[in-house]
Amino acid sequence: MKNKLLILLSYIILFLNSNILIAQEKKILKVGLLAPLTGEYEQLGNSLLHSLQLALNEINDERVFIIPRDAGLNNKEKIKKAIEDIKKENVNIIIGPISNENFSEVKKYNDLIFVSPSNISPDFQNNVISLGISLDSQLKALVKFLKKQKKNKTVIMFPNNGYKNFIQDKLKELNLNNIKTFVYNPNPEVLTGEIETLTNYSQRKKNLELRKKMFQDKEDEQSIKELERLDQLYTLGGVNFDSVIIIDFGNSLKSVLTSLAYTDVDQKRVLITTVNQWFDESIFYENTIKNIYYPSINYKEFKKYNENYFKKYKDYPNEISIITYDALGLIYYAWKKKGDLASINDFYFKNKIKGKIGTFSLKDKKVVQELEIYKVEKNKFTKF
Prior knowledge:
By secondary structure, this protein is an alpha/beta fold. The chain has helices at about 1-25, 40-60, 75-85, 105, 135-150, 165-175, 190-200, 200-215, 220-230, 250-260, 300-315, 320-340; strands spanning about 30-35, 65-70, 95, 115, 130, 155-160, 180-185, 245, 270-275, 290-295, 355, 360-365, 365-370, 370-375, 380-384. The chain folds into two domains: about 1-130 and about 300-360, 3-Layer(aba) Sandwich (Rossmann fold), CATH 3.40.50.2300; about 135-295 and about 375-384, Response regulator (Rossmann fold), CATH 3.40.50.2300. β3 (about 95), α4 and β4 (about 115) form a beta-alpha-beta unit. The chain is elongated, with a radius of gyration of 28 Å. Residues about 1-25 have low confidence and may be disordered.
């Protein structure tokens, strides 16, 4: 009888200890990270890891741990191994993958939640949340901005490259009214001719020459003044749009801006906008267009984040690292609010969330950023 009692007590103690261990485990938040920590993209991976360290410092909670693993970039074998290694640490939520090209691989792990910095789609996909600055949010912000500026003849311009079909599909989804699209060749030598056609440049050039001929043989003061005025122009007549949205980046974007200036698009009448440029200061030197507008994250927070990062690591971060910073903040917020993160459903919130990137919401199985409009003028970014 005594032996049976001892055995029963042993089971009770073992059961209680197990429950204590489980309870303690739930009080710890372990977050995995899939990043290229070696090889060609090591600098990017380190930037993501460093951003999470900054986030940990701000959270200041000893119960939060980061479990990083080298997943390479678009390397299925490395990603698979990294996920398996992270799972062994009893982790069920992971920041990554960086690229949406790996979503099909991570969707195989139904028992895990992935928060990716990818911006390819704002919709929740199975077990993946994309926290990046989506084209959907950018276009919605731009259309709202143009409407406030009373612009109703907008042309959305984008290059004929690998993202053409993706952009066209997004435009269909958004069902934008009174907006035309213009797909251009990214080759600068071809591009200028295409924009000449878009802006009716040849006809406007002819209009000017015909107008000038009307006054060339006249000697009255009014005719002389009109001819002097016309001599200051490159074309005569306006274009059949009042605003443009250019979905492009880098030198390709600058080529479009140069072509618009070359074809004498009146910048006082035509409002020129583009998509998020991450406050790229090289656009300052594109002086053919005086004023450019685009939607983006909060500039003050972005600048502050970069300064803090540089102060600690003596280097500047990759732009998307601020997304991983907010990803950890979001995970921590959900963990504190829900107690345990069992599935992607634990990330549905009625309230808006404020992060480094600005205000965003997660409802209706979608991430929506409330982006601000910035104006590029006189070598500075100004919130409009």
